[in-house]
Structures are given as C-alpha cells and as structure tokens.
Amino acid sequence: MRSASFSVFLINSAAVVLALVIYQLGGRDHFGERGFITFLSTFQLLAIALIADKILQVKKRFGGTYSPPKLWLWRTLSWGFIFLAADEFLSIHEVTDLLIHDLLNLQETNLTDRIDDIIVALYGTGGIWLLWNSRDELKWHPSAIALFKRAFILLFFMVGLDMFANEQDLLKLFFAPSTASTMQRHIEHLEDSFKVFAEAFFILAFYSILRDSKSRAKKLAPVD
Fold first, then answer.
1. What is the DSSP string of 184-213?
2. How far apart are CA 183 and CA 170, in angstroms?
3. Helix (H, G, I), strand (E, B), or coil: what is residue 77?
4. Which sign does the torsion angle of CA 102, 106, 107, 108 carry?
5. How far apart, in whole angstroms, are the C-alpha atoms of residue 199 and residue 88?
6. Which member of 9, 124, 125, 201 lies 3.0 to 4.6 Å from 151 by CB, making a disulfide possible if both were Cys?
C-alpha cells in the first residue's frame, strides 16, 4: 500500500509542479481546459472506475460468507466514475449550467454563474450519501474510510474555492481589480490541485478495498 501511495502522490505532485513551472515561465496554463492536468484528472477517474469494477468481480466470488456484498454499490460506483471522467473531459456540468440558463431563460449573474459549482457539490453529496447508506459494506474496509474522508474534504475545499473565486466578485471586496485577477488565477490553480489530489485519495481508497477483498477471497477459496 505504501508503494501505491508513493507512486500516486508522486505522479500528482510532479504534474502539479510541472504545470505551475510552465505557467510561471510564461507558457500555457495547463490547469485550464485541455491542459495535461485535465487529462490526468480524466485518467484518474477512469482508473477509479476500473478498480471499482474489479472490486465488483472479486466480491462476486465470496458473496454471502459474512453478509451479502452490495454488488449494486460497486456497479453504481464504477459507472458513476465513468460519467465523472466524461464530465471532466467534456465539461458536462458547465454545459448543464448553460442549458439551465437557456431553459429557464435566466439572466446570467454572479450568483447563477455558480450553478456548475453547485452541480459538482451535488456529485460529492451524492457520493457521501451512497457510501453512508452502504456503511455496513464498508465496515470491512476501515483503512479505506479514512482515505474517503480526506478525498471528500479536498473535494469540498475545491468547490468552495471555485465558488469564492468565480467571476472575481467576492475577491474584489478584498482586493484591487488587478490583484483580484491575479488572485483568481492562483486560486484556480489551487482548486485544480485539490481536485487531482482528491482523486488520488479516491484511487487509494478503492485500491485498499480491492486489496482487502482479494485477501478475503483468497482465504475463503476452497482448498484442493
């Protein structure tokens, strides 16, 4: 597990530092759309979906030994993270924001422009609700629970930062317009950094569950 943790955090740290260095040297902002941070995030979400599917397959092999595993949970999580990967790459929540404005004929304001942030917060809230309602399934994986907590903390920090820095309206209450613009950019970079590290914690949480599940399946396998 230590090796996996080191590798995951090394990759994410290196990506964030590289993106910051490139930006500071006057290059492209890779935290923006189609920057390599977006590709890293998409890849990590797909990796989580794959691990969730592997957990599903392993749990099928020893269902009912202690209590029947909630196979629907792992199937839902797998498909859910595939959707989140598509959202990350195609900006579905931002398109949904625009669609809501069009359908409801809303005039875009600093408040309504935060609808996309609310959608992301709802993703996180839905994830917490799903895991909480399946806590009897997760009780077999205590180490993963701590990792999930860290992931969700970073996720909601990310949403909070995005809401705060959006459109600079709140920043201009505390800073001059030119300073607010610079602060907004730095906060956006911090926000995206929180995002990829939240995904790193999710990867490790699911990987921990997969390891636990494989270990139990091996113990319960019939001896020839």
1. HHHHHHHHHHHHHHHHHHHHHHHHHHHHHH
2. 11
3. helix
4. negative
5. 12
6. 201
Q: What is the tens place of the pLDDT at every residue in 105-145?
A: 767 666 666 777 788 888 889 999 999 988 888 888 889 99
- Lookup result for tokens 């902002």: 29
Angle at 49 between CA 37 and CA 139, to 5 degrees: 115
Distance CA 51, CA 70 (A): 16
Q: Considering only CA atoms, give the Rg of the chain.
A: 20
- Structure tokens belonging to residue 98: 């625009």
Identity of the amino acid at 69: P
CA separation for the pair 59, 73 (Å, rounded): 11
175 φψ region: left (φ > 0), alpha (ψ -120 to 50), beta (else): beta
Return d(Cα 135, Cα 124) in angstroms, integer.
16
Q: Are 151 and 198 in contact (CB under 8 A)?
A: yes
Residue 41: how many other CB atoms lie within 10 Å: 22
Say if residues 39 and 15 touch (Cβ distance below 8 Å).
no
Q: What tokens appear for 215 in the block?
A: 């270990």
